[in-house]
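ok, trying the design again with the full structure, not the truncated one.
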């Protein structure tokens, strides 16, 4: 074999070896880690648990005119502005009188404040007057329910 061909073959072999080494190094650096799916499932489970641990709450204000009481209450699915008032009255031993009609519930008395011909209980939801009867007005977490004794 002639020395030029021998040198050419050695150069080609050197280039091939260098190319293989470079490819090997690049693959090692860029190798993608196989995810540990058990860790992903654990993360999903922890996220779901933290969401279920979050309590759905509302603020309930009873405004008697001269004073007001503020409460933070947990709510349940299907709660209304009336159902949370009723539950609070039971929990706090508040007097609560109401009457049912075809249109819905009408609150007559909360605590010591009883409706008169010029004063009565009304309910606001998020600082807006109710558009339906209290037992029909659904609530959601974060709502502000205010029962206030109003003069007419």
């Amino acid at each position: 074999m002639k020395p030029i061909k021998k040198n050419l073959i050695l150069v080609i072999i050197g280039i091939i070896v260098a190319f293989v080494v470079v490819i090997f190094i690049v693959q090692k650096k860029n190798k993608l880690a196989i995810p540990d799916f058990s860790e992903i499932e654990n993360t999903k489970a922890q996220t779901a648990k933290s969401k279920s641990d979050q309590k759905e709450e509302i603020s309930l204000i009873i405004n008697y005119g001269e004073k007001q009481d503020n409460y933070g209450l947990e709510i349940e699915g299907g709660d209304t502005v009336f159902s949370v008032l009723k539950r609070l009255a039971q929990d706090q031993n508040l007097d609560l009188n109401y009457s049912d009609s075809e249109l819905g519930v009408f609150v007559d008395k909360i605590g010591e404040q009883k409706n008169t011909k010029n004063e009565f209980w009304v309910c606001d939801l998020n600082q807006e007057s109710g558009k339906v009867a209290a037992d029909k007005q659904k609530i959601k977490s974060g709502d502000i329910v205010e029962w206030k004794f109003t003069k007419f």
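Keeping the full-length input from now on. The mean pLDDT is 84.
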